[in-house]
From TrEMBL:
GO terms for molecular function: heme binding; iron ion binding; monooxygenase activity; oxidoreductase activity, acting on paired donors, with incorporation or reduction of molecular oxygen. PANTHER family: CYTOCHROME P450 (PTHR24279), CYTOCHROME P450 FAMILY 27 SUBFAMILY B MEMBER 1 (PTHR24279:SF121). This is Cytochrome P450 family 27 subfamily B member 1. It comes from Chrysemys picta bellii (Western painted turtle). Its cofactor is heme. The gene is CYP27B1. InterPro entries: CYP11_CYP27_families, Cyt_P450, Cyt_P450_CS, Cyt_P450_E_grp-I, Cyt_P450_sf.
Length: 355
């Protein structure tokens, strides 16, 4: 974060992702650009994530409300900013509160308090439902559809909309960040991807879903990033009605089974050189992968409902990459750690060099 890219590559944060989330810009100015709006810069993932979160929140809220929540405005509304931060704090506190026995919450009340405050704030974001109950008009087909279902309680509406909003922000922003991190460390893959994108776009400015469908390497890059960094690193199921057998193990009914996606997707039996970023492994037609070895979106009827939106958003955001992304020279490798979601253990510093 402290270092700047060379002066000949001058561009602002806004130009890089065209996503001027205000807090990000302020951090950037004060710590990095020292008051100059236009300069090359090295973006830290913390900063990048904020910017990405703004972009992603905008996308999800457009789907949910068919209206924008102001992430791309010069002045981001306070409530939007607080909403994004609440999601983040909730995830940080989840692990801590889950691990703490109940009695300890009385001794150390802060984590639980922050956890509850974050959820309360996220629920308030959906107050639009209350407007409807008061007979006020609300834009947005998705919400209107929900609200029109007379059998749904307000509690269900709040729950569903809040879950969709929170499930779709950090997940995509993290995937985007890890994808750029790996691309910055694999210039050949990045060059091939750039070639693929420019070949399909042929000078066109705005890619469509149909364009993305013609970009196998782009999809492979995202698959590989999700294999190495499954943003939800583990998952759980309870089979309540019967005992089941998995391999040599008999699992009695009502047992909580926790699966670790992270471990299986880095298992050398399924993915040779499991810790290496090799998007080409997804392109080899003769190579078959165990269908459940890498399941970043889960499987079955409770699998990720937002998968298609997520994939498209990540693909499109990577296409916005009119820059060559390079690692900050002094930065070593960054490892992932779990904070309910899988996150980087330290800031990722990248340079964005105008093409
Ligand atoms: C890269 C991005 C994303 C990843 C890796 C991801 C991953 C996952 C995973 C692993 C699950 C649990 C699946 C299971 O238990 O089998 C899940 C559930 C869910 N996801 Fe996502 N997700 C992403 C983006 C999104 C987006 C954009 C949305 C909403 C627009 C979303 C909404 C949901 C919802 C509502 C569930 C719960 C589904 C249910 O319980 O039936 N996700 N996601």
């Amino acid at each position: 974060m402290e270092r700047l890219a060379s002066a000949e590559h001058r561009f602002s944060t806004r130009q890089v992702f065209q996503l001027p989330l205000n807090p990000a810009r302020h951090i950037c100015k004060s710590r990095c650009l020292k008051g100059q709006e236009h300069a090359g810069f090295a973006a830290a993932l913390g900063l990048m994530s904020l910017t990405f979160s703004g972009f992603i929140s905008l996308g999800i809220s457009s789907v949910l409300f068919e209206s924008r929540i102001g992430c791309l405005e010069p002045e981001v509304p306070k409530e939007t900013e607080t909403f994004i931060r609440s999601i983040n704090r909730m995830f940080v506190m989840t692990l801590l509160t889950m691990a703490m026995p109940k009695f300890l919450h009385r001794v150390f009340p802060k984590p639980w308090k922050i956890f509850c405050e974050s959820w309360d704030y996220m629920f308030r974001m959906t107050e639009v439902a209350e407007k409807v109950s008061r007979g006020e008009t609300v834009e947005g087909k998705y919400l209107t559809y929900y609200l029109a279902q007379e059998k749904l309680s307000m509690k269900s509406i709040y729950g569903n909309v809040t879950e969709l909003l929170l499930a779709g922000v950090d997940t995509i922003s993290s995937t985007l960040s890890w994808s750029l991190y790996e691309l910055s460390r694999h210039p050949r893959v990045q060059a091939a991807l750039h070639e693929e994108i420019t070949g399909v776009m042929k000078g066109g400015a705005v890619p469509s879903a149909a364009d993305v469908a013609q970009m196998p390497l782009l999809k492979a890059v995202v698959k590989e990033a999700l294999r190495l960094y499954p943003v939800i690193p583990s998952n759980a199921r309870v089979i309540s009605d019967r005992d089941i057998q998995v391999g040599e193990y008999l699992i009695p009914r009502k047992t909580l089974i926790t699966l670790c996606h992270y471990a299986t997707s880095r298992d050398a039996r399924f993915f040779p050189e499991p810790d290496s970023f090799k998007p080409e492994r997804w392109l080899q037609k003769d190579a078959s992968h165990h269908p459940y070895a890498s399941i970043p979106f889960g499987v079955g009827k409770r699998s990720c409902i937002g998968r298609r939106i997520a994939e498209l958003e990540v693909h499109l955001a990577l296409i916005l990459m009119h820059f060559e992304v390079k690692p900050e020279p002094e930065q070593g490798p960054v490892r992932p750690m779990t904070r309910t979601l899988l996150v980087p253990e330290k800031d990722i510093n990248l340079q964005f060099v105008s093409r």
